[in-house]
Amino acid sequence: MELIAVVSIIGIIAAVALTRFSGSADEAKSSTCHLNKHNIEVQTQLWFRNKGRLPNANLGDIGIDTNYFPDGLSKCPVDQSSYAIDNSGRIVGHTH
What we know:
This protein is mainly α. The chain has 2 helices and no strands. The chain is rod-shaped, with a radius of gyration of 21 Å. The N and C termini lie far apart (46 Å). The model has no long low-confidence stretch (mean pLDDT 89).
């Protein structure tokens, strides 16, 4: 009986720990997406200042320019989708 109780307690502790760990991973992905959005918007404004126009809405031109994104344009860590901007240089969507 004691062994069953110990195994049950360990199972409960493991379930709680796993739930907290997976929640933290989701929060980390959401925070990374938020950071990516801000980084892209800053680089978009820099592009506008240097070139006199905003990059393409799908970010294809700025994404391949290593002066702005040396490691390439990031994808959203939450859903692996690409980022895009509107006509003011702000990221469209990605409200997670």
